[in-house]
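Session log. Operator J.P. requested a structure for one protein chain; no other inputs attached. Running the standard single-chain path with token output.
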Amino acid sequence: MAHTEIINIEAWARDLITKARAAHSGRAAQLVRGGPDTPLTQTVIALDAGASLSEHENPGEATVLVLEGQVRLIAADHEWRGARGDVINVPPTRHSLQADTVSVILLTAVKQPAAEPAHASRSERPASHPAEPAPTVEDLSVSDCWSLLRTGTVARLAVWVDDHPDIFPLNYVVDHASIVFRSREGTKLAGALTDTPVAMEVDGYSAETSRAWSVVLKGRARAIEQTEELLDTFVLSLFPWEGGTKNRFIHIVPDVITGRRFLVVDADSWLTPMSDARRTPSE
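Structure written below.
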């Protein structure tokens, strides 16, 4: 007999609202059922007032059931408003969701099965070239880049140290159109606070759409030292994963920001007749 689980959505909603209010993104989510490998997924999502789900593709068929609050679903020049108890049919185009009040929704999505492409068997594929993936790379606007940066918490910072480049992971927050992170004295801080510009990269993956994204920004870093600016940083939800004293606040206002989003192709598309070949110990 199949196992049946009864879930108290109202209890989840209360817990997720608390988490959303504490998160710098203003969002929190819990998967009800499904996952990357199943056609049907259901997710409870809580949004603080003013928070949003940035513009994204519809993976197939989807609906939004408003459990609490008031939301707006926006697609191009169209907008649909929903309050508690309303069901919004998600359009088959790129769309975003904005919470006008503290809200909780149940997102139900059914992925459309991918069409089976006509291709040669593995043994008939050329040995020198993998299958050519379809061109699915999307260049992101600056606005989209900032929206995605607000969903992240971990970045990689590239700096120039002495005579070589170096890279460091860090936790960050977006403060208007800039980046703020905390650090202690050390190589990372010394490399960042020079006349040489730094680069920072953040990436992510959406299991709902099977799309990955990457945002890179470049600019100069400076230490926040003025009393008024330091006081402003205290209200930012900046919580480094690593413990210890991190009493230096660093500010990056990028000169350049770029991003890409692309469909993640099936790993089998890169297989060749040599993929399963056994290797000798010397290889």
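Operator note: The first strand starts at residue 27 and ends at 33.
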